[in-house]
Amino acid sequence: AQVSQEDIEFLRGIYPNFATTLLEAALKKYNNDVNQTAIGLTEENVLETLQSEIEADNSKKASVEKTLSVVEVIADSEEFSKALYSLLECDVAEVLVKVWSILEKVPVEAALSEYEASELVWDVLMPIEAPYKLLYSTRCITNMLEQQRELSLIHICRCRRIERCRSRWAPDN
Q1: pLDDT tens, position by position, 35-87
Q2: Which end of the chain is flanked by fewer CB atoms within 10 Å, N or C?
Q3: Average pLDDT, whole number, for the chain?
Q4: Per-residue pLDDT tens for 12-49?
Q5: Which of 73, 18, 61, 20 is nearest to 8 (CA)?
Q6: Long-range contact set of residues 84-90: C-beta below 8 Å, sequence gap at least 24
Q7: In Å, how far are 7, 124, 143, 156 from 21, measured between CA atoms?
């Protein structure tokens, strides 16, 4: 449940030196009951417990930020992208799941160079024996087709706009 700013301000009146994050955590702990929270904050070890929960939450957020930077590194490195892509043929389920979770976060554009060759070998591109590789290839091809569709629509709109201008300004015959 969402913590209301009004409840935070009420608690700040009682505990003016407490950080907002601490008051929010306390409200969540006591199911957004302001009176129960005000009383609960006076109990022994509650502040320490809340503070450790806040620190653990901040640690998780920092870990997510680190993951994002790793994803950016992978997206920028053709070598890493190819290595992960080749791991999709692995027989170890745990490895497949971890590699897939990383590749899901990497923008598809990073892998499109793999598929832009004029002559595609479908057996290599869509291996039935490697379901995760097949799924990733399908994701990349779908993205390519979507981009082509968008470009085609833009082209059609521009052509229609040019035709309208020509017909509007063309001399009468």
Answers
A1: 998 988 888 888 889 988 888 888 877 766 665 566 677 767 777 777 877 88
A2: C
A3: 77
A4: 898 888 889 889 999 999 999 999 989 888 888 888 89
A5: 20
A6: 85/111, 85/114, 85/133, 85/136, 88/130, 88/132, 88/133, 88/136, 89/127, 89/129, 89/130, 89/133
A7: 13, 52, 41, 53
What CA–CA distance (Å, rounded) separates 71 from 106?
6
**Element at 104 (helix H, strand E):** helix 93-105
Which residues have C-beta within 8 Å of that of residue 84, sequence separation ≥ 6? 74, 99, 102, 103, 106
For residue 167, the surrounding DSSP H or E stretch is helix 131-169
Number of Cα atoms under 13 Å in the Cβ half of residue 119 = 0
Torsion of CA 73, 78, 81, 82, to 10 degrees: -150
Tens digit of each residue's pLDDT (9 = 90 or more) over 96-119: 888 888 877 777 765 555 555 545
Residue 119 near residue 148 (C-beta atoms within 8 A): no
Tell me how many degrees the CA angle 13-17-19 measures, rounded to the nearest 5: 100
Residue 121 token pair: 């070998």
**Two tokens, residue 165:** 């201008």
